[in-house]
Amino acid sequence: MGGDFPPMDWFTGIGIFGILAGVTISLVVLVAVGSIRRSLNEASARQSQQIRKLTETVVTLSAQHQAAQTRIQQLTDANRRLSDELTAIGERLSDADAVRRAAGTARLLH
Fold this sequence. Notes:
By secondary structure, the protein is mainly α. Helix content is 91%, strand content 0%. It has 1 helix and no strands.
């Protein structure tokens, strides 16, 4: 019979089976490693995006904080000026009241 293969001995069969098993295991490991790497890359990309968003939020909050500090300082200065003006008005009213009392006393004496 032409084209017939000679019978394999059991050692050759085990060798071929071992090679096929090794190739199969290698392929499974390569696919698993590729999947793990892809997952890690996606997770890293998500973390990078979250870090960028957090950085933008921190920058925005810092700017708002600075604006609030500036406004607080402006309000504090305005409050001080109003307090000074109120004190001055109170002193003028007190002086005017003292002058009126003095004038009234002088009229009574004359």
